[in-house]
Specification:
mainly alpha; 232 residues; disordered C terminus; Heme Oxygenase, Chain A
């Protein structure tokens, strides 16, 4: 028995009501002004801190599924997570390459301690995976892949920042890839035999991710512009 397609429709409806908050924060972050190059470099650092956790999160969630042999949700969820982890593997390295092309030493990304708001975005998933059910991670994935960079953003940022187009490969690639990933996720959610508690957990995870992602973008957007003459 699979979940009704209405489960997917309900989740997408709930997200449609709150995702304008993320889009508005992203628009503020990508506004065209003298601070844009600096904000982009800070975005690379923040997204590296988020994306380097993606594969470990999926692998941990899959391992938890594999420890639940009598749960009908667990086997198909584990298969999806293992496959998706392979699709996402190495994407954090893309950001290091982009950082180098933007004039930022990769060590500035890898050595930076993640601030509390990044830990809150990612860390809630570890809690739910360990103490509730690994299906929570689907809400997180739905939001991140449902708010991929817009097509054309990479080109606009290259023009407006004056940075090399090579500094925007992750933005460009995620704009191309994540629509297909979202469709695959919707098909999975539609097939999983989720009970009411699991459906609620996916929704709670998604709504938390919306709020935390909007906060991350707003913190980048609120950073004061660098004075003229200094590196942005």
């Amino acid at each position: 028995m699979s979940t009704s397609p209405s489960t997917v429709a309900r989740l997408r409806l709930e997200l449609s009501l709150v995702e304008p908050v993320v889009r508005a924060a992203a628009a503020r972050m990508w506004r065209s002004d003298a601070g844009l190059p600096g904000r982009y470099r800070r975005y690379l650092c923040a997204m590296h801190q988020v994306i380097r956790a993606s594969v470990p999160l999926m692998e941990r969630a899959a391992a938890r599924c594999e420890a639940l042999p009598h749960d009908p949700v667990a086997p198909p969820l584990a298969r999806y997570l293992r496959a998706h982890a392979e699709e996402e593997r190495g994407h954090d390295d893309w950001l290091l390459t982009d950082a180098a092309a933007s004039g930022t030493a990769p060590g500035e990304l890898t050595d930076a301690a993640a601030p509390a708001h990044v830990a809150a975005l990612v860390g809630a998933q570890y809690y739910w995976i360990e103490h509730s059910h690994p299906v929570a991670l689907l809400g997180y994935i739905a939001v991140l892949e449902g708010n991929a960079p817009a097509p054309g953003l990479a080109g606009r940022l290259a023009r407006e920042t004056g940075l090399s187009p090579a500094a925007f490969e992750t933005v460009r690639l995620h704009a191309e890839l994540d629509d297909g990933h979202s469709a695959d996720l919707d098909l999975l959610i539609g097939r999983l035999p989720l009970d009411a508690g699991q459906r609620s957990l996916v929704a709670v995870s998604a709504l938390h991710t919306v709020a935390a992602l909007a906060e991350l973008f707003d913190r980048i957007a609120a950073t004061a512009p660098t004075p003229i003459g200094e590196r942005p």
